[in-house]
Amino acid sequence: xxxxxxxxxxxxxxxxQGRATEGALRSLGFGGVNSVRVGRYIVLDIDAPTxxxxxxxAKKMCEQLLAxxxxxxxxxxxxxx
Amino acid sequence: xxxxxxxxxxxxxxxxQGRATEGALRSLGFGGVNSVRVGRYIVLDIDAPTxxxxxxxAKKMCEQLLAxxxxxxxxxxxxxx
Amino acid sequence: xxxxxxxxxxSLDDADALYALREVMGQDATRLWHKDERLMGAQCIxxxxxxxxxxxxxxxxxxxxxxxxxxxxxxxxxxxxxxxTCNGFQILCEARLLPGVLVRNRSLSFICDRxxxxxxxxxxxxxxxxxxxxxxxxxxxxxxxxYVAPEDEIRQIEERGQVLLRYVDASGAExxxxxxxxxxxxxxxxxxxxFNVFGLMPHPEHAVEKMLVGGDDGLKLFHSVIESVx
Amino acid sequence: MSAVSLPGEPVVDVVQxxxxxxxEGEYAAIERCLGRxxxxxxxxxxxxxxxxxxxxxxxxxxxxxxxxxxxxVAGGPGENAGAIDIGDGWVAVxxxxxxxxxxxxxxxxxxxxxxxGILRDIxxxxxxxxxxxxxxxxxxxxxxxxRYLLSGVVGGIGGYGNCVGVPTVAxxxxxxxxxxxxxxxxxxxxxxxxxEELQSARARGAGNPVLYVGSATGRDGIHGxxxxxxxxxxAESASKxxxxxxxxxxxxxxxxxxxxxxxxxxxxxAIQDMGAAGLTSSSSEMAGRGGLGIELDLDRVxxxxxxxxxxxxxxxxxxxxxxxxxxxxxxxxxxxxxxxWDLHAxxxxxxxxxxxxxxxxxxxxxxxxPVASLSDEAPVYDRPAAxxxxxxxxxxxxxxxVAPEPGAALRALLASPNICSRRWVYRQYDWIVxxxxxxxxxxxxxxxRIKGSRRGLAxxxxxNPRMCAIDPYxxxxxxxxxxxxxxxxxxARPAGITNCLNYGNPERPEIxxxxxxxxxxxxxxxxxxxxxxxxxxxxxxxxxxxRAIPPTPTIAMVGVFEDVERRVTQCFKQPxxxxxxxxxxxxxxxxxxxxxxxxxxxxxxxxxxxxxxxKLIEGLVGCAEGGLVHSAHDVAExxxxxxxxxxxxxxxxxxxxxxxxxxxxxxxxxxLFGEGASTVIISAPTDRIEAIGTLFSPLEIRPIGRVxxxxxxxxxxxxxxxxxxxxxxxxxxxxGRLGAK
Lengths: 81, 81, 230, 741
Ligand SMILES: Nc1ncnc2c1ncn2[C@@H]1O[C@H](COP(=O)(O)OP(=O)(O)O)[C@@H](O)[C@H]1O
Ligand SMILES: [Mg+2]
Known about the structure:
The complex is a heterotetramer, with two copies of chain A (81 residues), one copy of chain C (230 residues) and one copy of chain D (741 residues).
Chain A: E1 2-9, H1 16-27, E2 33-46, H2 51-66, E3 72-79
Antiparallel strand pairs in A: 1-2, 1-3
Chain C: E1 2-7, H1 14-24, E2 28-33, E3 44-47, H2 67-77, E4 81-85, H3 87-94, E5 101-103, E6 111-119, E7 135-142, E8 146-148, H4 151-159, E9 163-168, E10 187-191, E11 197-200, H5 219-229
Parallel strand pairs in C: 1-2, 1-3, 3-4, 4-11
Antiparallel strand pairs in C: 5-8, 6-7, 6-9, 9-10, 10-11
Chain D: H1 14-19, H2 24-34, H3 40-49, H4 52-55, H5 60-63, E1 73-75, E2 82-87, E3 90-98, H6 100-105, H7 107-123, E4 128-138, H8 146-164, E5 168-175, E6 184-194, E7 209-214, H9 225-229, H10 235-240, H11 249-264, E8 268-273, H12 278-289, E9 293-297, H13 310-315, E10 321-326, H14 331-340, E11 345-352, E12 356-361, E13 364-370, H15 371-374, H16 406-415, H17 423-426, E14 437-439, E15 446-449, E16 456-462, H18 465-470, H19 472-489, E17 493-502, H20 509-528, E18 533-539, E19 543-544, E20 547-548, E21 552-561, E22 578-583, H21 593-598, H22 610-625, E23 631-634, H23 639-648, E24 656-659, H24 669-673, E25 679-684, H25 689-696, E26 701-708, E27 712-715, E28 719-722, H26 723-737
Parallel strand pairs in D: 4-5, 9-12, 17-18, 24-27
Antiparallel strand pairs in D: 1-2, 2-3, 3-6, 4-6, 7-10, 7-11, 8-10, 9-11, 12-13, 14-15, 15-16, 16-21, 17-21, 19-20, 22-25, 22-26, 23-25, 24-26, 27-28
Helix pairs in contact in D: 7-8, 7-11, 8-11, 11-14, 19-20, 19-22
Bound molecules: adenosine-5'-diphosphate (ADP) and magnesium ion.
């Protein structure tokens, strides 16, 4: 099954990369950019008997490895099968 | 409007980060992990008169800055308004 | 005394730490392999700098799960001395053996330079051979050394005197320019609540010989540990 | 035995050969040495092995004139990198290589994989890489792409080098409009080995297994966009072919440790990295050197994705891969070492005694070629060379007809991207790791110590395209002189050279002439300094829309210290010291940074008297060994005034200089800002003047002033500047222009 994980910097936690990207976009002449947050997008192909099982596994993976709860929020979607 | 950009390593391009994450998940005892690709997830809040305009802008931003067309593919979704 | 230096895949400064301890300070130091769980009777364990697992995903996030880390967590829980420099610091944070986390430098680029740090708390096993207020000139080399933690946590850390080293300028003053990576409160090194686990971004193991670019101010930190143990 | 094309593969004929970049003559030669039409796979193999990049067909004849042997040379010519004996049983293995085009296409990955490639050339020799340098040429600073390329390249060099734990200790950066459409990225690496531990890439022992270790093979860097058009069968796989290779420094680090450990078992007979033309070149070259044959079983090659054709497997340039020949029966021993480092060694073939290079795929022989025809018998050309009607000049746009007054000119030069501090660059490189760096970036040459010995090495990479543009011979000589001088100023005795020859299209007689004259200059200077050229690399076709880069031979010089405590650095240390100048010839504004900035009409170059250059080097080394001087600094870009200012920039306490040159008002520019000549600025206690003089004789040493503790730099009544002000200009120029902190 296809698991898509979205990891984003916690609200309130500084996001230098986002700020730099914002600046770069402005200097490229893009107007009306209010905010930019840069996070990670992780696509996993895993075997799981059921969607529920896949979600179970994805949650564990995020909590243990894929995201750092101190500074990051995560969200995931399970597709297919 | 909210623009969500998903940047992933191009098909056929080496993804060392994905490989390392895959290995780590295995050694953490997660079975049945077939593949992992690690990319970037960028969330922008931009002003745009219409959804079409926002999409127009998002495409430009991806091509000019947010993704490296030589080694990355990108996809985006526009929400709100 | 007996030291243990851990080698993870991608560790770089492990060899340098071993060289500093053995050849320069005449200490008894062994290399600890990440797949191993034995700590070989080490009295102080060093998690070295480098790019464990390529620093992929997040610095230290993968190394944290190595077999040896279980033993080290137990060792620390029993009050054993643990020092993490640079990547080692990042690993200790990821492993929650130290509060907070290290993120991309403010400049977003890797920085290799010599900085000045001020000793904030000299009543710890890692700083007892120094005096509070002492200035040390130490090398840094990292892309992700910006220390961040929730404000309330930082406040507690400060109150308990867990901040051991702070970036300052040549006059000993805290200035924005003197803070190379934008760390909160200019924090360069912190200890845990029990003061037996110490993490710092500067590299004392690269500051043990006058002849080399790093100078030798790092010796003071190693000597502190040696004194505290005897 | 004959070989077969696979179903669906394009027909092989002259047209297909041309699409592969082979000439009709070359195609005929291929048919001759096979006695038949090549299979599609064989055609691909020949096309890469006979390419300029792999075969050196345009330069080989001329490279033979370089002095490659000498008492210190401990191996090299013919191997992956050269080695010189540095005493106490140690050898230094080093080489420089270009990664120009990939870095122009994708600066970060291009530069990163360039570093990775040169590292493998070094540790494949059995040497642990201990220091890196790089030479970078970008377009004019104001060119729209320059900043992007600069930060990408510097980021890539740091990203890779820092992660493998090899310090980047020196380099050079130049900006010039001549490189707008073709930047240069030359990467140098030096490794250390015990003499008896040197490894070879010469296959031995028919029946010995061939092992593959490292990253799996993907479709990276397979050549020939042109040919793909003609090959429908892989139009689809072609679309999957990345045009850019991504480096994995983490795997490289594991390879370094694992290979060095595996070598200690003694079970490795031969080993070579898979560089250009990957599996094909490494396998055929190892077999070729041993006069043996090799058979590859392509079904066993680890693949990153399914469905690669034999053609793709053989031509892939995926990074971080090594090929080695093991002693029969000891594969297990080696596999165990690699497993320890989470790497898998796979047996993909064996050495044969029939001197043929054979590739099998699904039970079919897809290539069967005489080994020699892939290496030694590759074509060699003696291309016509002729000087151009008019010498080409690299020129800055004429800013003003007349230069500003000396003080302003000095400040302008110190702020020039070609002269100002490179701190913004080397701050992004780890120059500390491995605990050997005695002098890092920011001085004339970098210095590393050799652990467990008193010895040390000094190294510097230099180039001088502007002089080469005026006179490719003198320019090359001057470049070697500068590199030697940088090393000798540090107090080390120049011991060996590696070089990277960056030129345009050799099929044009004037480019070929530049190349030949450049090699002649390198030869003459190398002979004069008794510094053998132990390795190198040639990068041709550096041109865009018919406009070639200026001839750019990049020279890396390595010098040896018997006692590294005898080192010298470039900045003043003692107020009251006398400032001495030693020079081999009068300076000239031709091709100088001053010329580029202010567009003065510069005359031709002074001829270079190599005997006097040798004396200068001898004198510098003598002064260091005798501990006679407090500082020595080479006069390079920006001339005397800039070098004098740099000597005042001592980070642990700024000094000043009081200098009397008795220059004529007006025509002082030559003396203050001229380049070309070999000139050094020395500071020493007054009572040493005589001793120093004898060491340099017959060169004359000129006392021109004193080091002062007042932070002012004064030359006659022409220049009187505050050193801190100058230093601020020098330090902040690059970061300032890049809008970074
Ligand atoms: N790309 C680079 N990487 C590392 N160090 C560099 C680089 N470019 C310049 N440097 C350092 O900056 C200093 C000045 O460089 P350069 O002008 O080439 O020296 P020189 O004038 O003696 O030839 C040297 O110490 C050199 O090693
Ligand atoms: Mg130079």
